[in-house]
Amino acid sequence: MDNLKAVIIGAGMGGLTTGIALRQAGYAVEIYDRVSELRPAGAAISLWSNGVKVLNRLGLGKDIARIGGQMDRMTYYNSAGEKLTDFSLSPLIETVGQRPYPVARTDLQQMLLEAFGVDQVQLNSKCVAVEQDADSATAIFADGRRVTGDLIVAADGTHSILREYVLGHSVERQYVGYVNWNGLVPASADLAPQNSWVLYVGEHKRASLMPVAGDRFYFFLDVPLPKGSPSTPETYREELAGHFQGWAPAVQTLIQRLDPLKTNRVEIHDIEPLQTWVKGRVALLGDAGHSTAPDLGQGGCQAMEDALVLSNYLATTNLSVADALKRYEAARKDRAADVVLKAHKRSDMTHGKDPEKTQQWYEELKFEDGSNIMQAICNTILAGPLN
Questions:
Q1: What is the pTM of this model?
Q2: Which domain holds residue 48?
Q3: β pairing state of 205-212 and 196-202
Q4: Each residue of 309-334: pLDDT tens digit?
């Protein structure tokens, strides 16, 4: 379709990737975000091969390789520090045709911003409503501004304001059952090897370290806790020391080294898979359409897949914008729903929803050579549009 104008609400990973893809397809693109300063939520992200392939397709392959961590192996330990399994990720990389890249969110956002145009994103722009007619869609902002385009992409995140417009009703986020602390620490050998993803598991908790660029590790620590448990950055270190008391020396060292004031604490939520993503000329994208627990590392990757599929349908379908968006919805909703449900199930197993199942998983890890774990990851990656 010629000379479309797309209005994108949200300058996160999904919004920026969509902006780049649509602009490369020849469309005029405007991106708006409610914040006054773009600060990504969370410290880092594991960008699996399906997400990396989208960036490769958009000409950003060298850039993501430069800011991504070199993750060659995966190692599981029990809470006492006894090795359960350790294996090379080479078979996975060879099967799917692309290595994964753990990457600091700030680095990834800066890369996407530079590719789109740092000064092209309009901040302090809170979209509160949309209107549409047969020929156009209009975003309405809190300050009264109105911006009209051929379509509106609602990439406004897990707390999306525009989701209710598309669905016709509001949707409650559901607490998955655990709290995640995450951040960045300098890489050092007493924490983990710099080319490995290391996980400590036990007591329905997890402690994880992943390499990112700049000689840093991305860490996260998971603890099943009641929703609304009181906590402040000043007490993070003491809390974590209590939750992980008696765990391996590397976990204790990590807790002592993390900077509480630069550590994120997130109560993990997701949203039941949605059947509707599109209303006329307005389409949900990324977390607005499929908010998932991070247990498969697929949240950002799914937003990138959305961006690619949406731009492909707009560029290759000439019936109407609404027709292209319906094709996008049909192509994406089952794929994203599968990821949301699998991530929720994985979270339940990891965090002791059924303690017997979690214990059985710990036992199975002792006999795991990596093939089952890599097969599950490969299946998720290869179900995407760039398989």
A1: 0.97
A2: 5-173+270-382
A3: antiparallel
A4: 999 999 998 899 999 999 999 999 99
